[in-house]
Automatic annotation (TrEMBL):
Keywords for this protein: Cell wall biogenesis/degradation, Cytoplasm, Hydrolase, Metal-binding, Zinc
Keyword Cell wall biogenesis/degradation recorded: yes
Upper lineage: Bacteria, Pseudomonadati, Pseudomonadota, Gammaproteobacteria, Oceanospirillales
Protein name: 1,6-anhydro-N-acetylmuramyl-L-alanine amidase AmpD
Superkingdom of the source species: Bacteria
Keyword Transferase: no
Membership in a protein family: Belongs to the N-acetylmuramoyl-L-alanine amidase 2 family.
Location (main, coarse): cytoplasm
Cofactor dependence: Zn(2+)
Ranges where the N-acetylmuramoyl-L-alanine amidase domain occurs: 22-175
Subcellular location as annotated: Cytoplasm
GO molecular function: N-acetylmuramoyl-L-alanine amidase activity
Listed EC numbers: 3.5.1.28
Length: 200
C-alpha cells in the first residue's frame, strides 16, 4: 500500500498515480472563480455493476468499444472525465491535470454556487451506490484527500461532498454504500496525528 507521504502533487499531477490523459477538459476560470475549493466524490462501473476490464479508462478517453456490451452504445458519445479514479484495489489513475477543469459534475450547485466543475476536483470510485467500497479504496481516498488538502489551501474538510449532494434528483452517487463517517474520521485522525508530531 502507498503511504500518504508517498502521494505528492506537483503542477497539478498526483504522483504516483498512473497518467491516462483524457481529451475531455478545459481551462478553469481565471478570475478567481476557478480556485479549487471543492472535492466531489463519484462512483462508476462499466459495464454497470462490473469491475475491471479497463472500460472506465477507455470511456474517459472517448475510446469505449461499443461492441463489447450493449450499454456502451448508450454512453459512447458522451464526453466526460474525472480528475482521478480509484479502482477496487485502491490504485489511482489520473485523467486530467488538477489545475484544469474536468467534466465530471455537469449541472450542479454547491452552497449556492453553480457550475461545480469550475472550482472542484472530481474523484471517481470504482463501485455502485449499493456495493460496499473496499478497504483499499477508503485508505487511498483518505491519502489522496489529505494530499489535496495540503496542496490546495482553499479546500478543506467541510467542502468534500458527493455528486448526489450537488446534483440532487439527477445523481445518486456515491450512494448509500459510501461511508462518509469513515472518510472524515480518517482525515481527522491523520490531522490529529500530524499535529501531535509537530508538538513533540
Amino acid at each position: 500500500m502507498i503511504r500518504v507521504t508517498d502521494f505528492t502533487i506537483t503542477d497539478g499531477r498526483l504522483a504516483p498515480a498512473r497518467w491516462c490523459p483524457s481529451p475531455n477538459f478545459g481551462p478553469r476560470p481565471t478570475d478567481g472563480a476557478g480556485d479549487i475549493t471543492l472535492l466531489v466524490i463519484h462512483n462508476i462501473s462499466l459495464p454497470p455493476g462490473q469491475y475491471g476490464g479497463g472500460y472506465v479508462e477507455a470511456f474517459f478517453q472517448n475510446r469505449l468499444p461499443v461492441a463489447d456490451h450493449p450499454y456502451f452504445a448508450e454512453i459512447a458519445a458522451l464526453q466526460v472525465s474525472s480528475h482521478l479514479f480509484i479502482n477496487r484495489q485502491g490504485e489511482v489513475v489520473q485523467f486530467v491535470n488538477l489545475n484544469d477543469r474536468a467534466w465530471h459534475a455537469g449541472a450542479s450547485c454547491h452552497s449556492g454556487r453553480d457550475n461545480c466543475n469550475d472550482y472542484s476536483v472530481g474523484i471517481e470510485l470504482e463501485g455502485t451506490d449499493t456495493d460496499a467500497y473496499t478497504d483499499a479504496q477508503y485508505r487511498t481516498l483518505i491519502d489522496v484527500s489529505e494530499a489535496l488538502l495540503a496542496a490546495y489551501p482553499d479546500l478543506h474538510r467541510g467542502r468534500i461532498t458527493g455528486h448526489e449532494h450537488i446534483a440532487p434528483g439527477r445523481k445518486t452517487d456515491p450512494g448509500i454504500a459510501f461511508n462518509w463517517h469513515r472518510l472524515f474520521q480518517g482525515l481527522a485522525h491523520r490531522m490529529n496525528s500530524a499535529s501531535a508530531q509537530e508538538d513533540v
